Amino acid sequence: MSCQKTDQRTVPWHSLGPGSEENTMINYIWPVALVVLSNIVYQVCAKSVPAEMNPFASLIVTYLVGAAVSAVFFFVLGGGAKLTRELGKTNWAPLVLGIVIVGLEVGWIYAYKAGWQVSTGFIVQSAFLAVGLLFTGFLLYREALTWNKVIGVVICLIGLGFINR
Which H/E stretch holds residue 3? Predict the structure, then answer.
């Protein structure tokens, strides 16, 4: 996706069309709402993979469906872009993303097979993820490491103690 840099943040191409205001709340909120809704459905689906099914066979079906949906969205919403031209822009990120997505998917399937509950498994991993991303943002992207962020992570970790009691 091509983006334009504006006021120290990246704005996707689809939010910069005629008559749009890039700072409208809906352009800021809808992607997060989509992620939240998708994560809820994702967790239900990951927990519902049949116990006797090989997780990698499940992922083959998952990725075939995902590839088909992505292709439809590309051709419907792609604004006339040429697929071969877009694929020619590939760098290391989509390749590594494909590998780590398999790790995420299979990790969740095995976590649920091991007995993790939907209500706690995601919260536990999210707290540790917050810690990891705090330092990742600081080290790789020079994002500010503020006391508010550090205290927020500490509160998340304290919350883990309450959740796992």
Answer: strand 3-6
Residues 82 and 95 occupy one common structural domain: yes
Could you tell me if 112 and 65 lie in one domain?
yes
Query: What DSSP state is assigned to residue 53?
Result: S
Burial class (CB in 10 A: 0-12, 13-18, 19+), 149: middle
Write the pLDDT tens digit of every residue in 83-141.
Answer: 999 999 999 999 999 999 999 999 999 999 999 999 899 888 988 998 999 999 999 99
- Residue 11, classed as helix, strand or coil, is strand
Q: Cβ(13)–Cβ(6) under 8 Å?
A: no
Q: Are residues 105 and 123 in the same domain?
A: no
- What the block records as the tokens of 16 is 């910069």
Q: With H, G, I as helix, E, B as strand and everything else as coil, classify residue 114.
A: coil
Residue 3's DSSP bridge partners are 12
Tokens 């334009």 correspond to what residue? 4
Range of the domain at 92: 55-116
Number of domains in the chain: 3
Measured in residues, the chain has a length of 165
